[in-house]
Amino acid sequence: MNRNLISVIVWDAVPVVGAYYLLRAFGVSEYIALPAAGAAGSARVVFVAVSQRRLDGFAAFIVVMFGCVVGLSLIAGDARFVLATKSATTALAALILLGTWIAGRPAAFSVAKKFGAEDAATARRWDALYADQPGFRRIYVVMTIVWGLALLAESVLRLLLVYLLPIDVMAGLSTLLLLTTIGLAGAWSAWYGKRGEARALTAREAR
Q: Which of 6, 27, 99, 151 has the most CB atoms lying inside 10 A of its own CB?
């Protein structure tokens, strides 16, 4: 598994789930525990921004989505609704991905470089192929569409489960469902991207 993806799981997902169940163990209500756990996950973004004087764009996006969840939950005042709003934010992320495809700048390429490029040399090679090979660019168009549809499907499934399962079950399952979706889509993307890169390199050498 790519080190960047492991970092996301360890620093962005584990603190959220762990903080929620720790708070629940101390008798904190679901309504308070859910946004408080999200705040624990957001603390990493603040720490990185202050200590390293840089803003992690991917993590910052998570914080913005979390802010939307908290805002909506404060209006509704319902713990189950807090979980349901996560489906809305995932769906929003999916629509943003699909929007980048429609705009002609598929986001999958930037995401692939962040989580898939092994080193700077690999990222530079991908940049050259992206600029030179239409077939290579098409790979990331397909990836962007697949990721957008996968996240939309995940958001619909989560919304259904939120109203079918107990809150304490869904608090952990919600994160697991998202990580599973990301993991499966990421594994497919790695295979699809590697195959596409090999074909693009062959096509360039044949010119």
A: 151
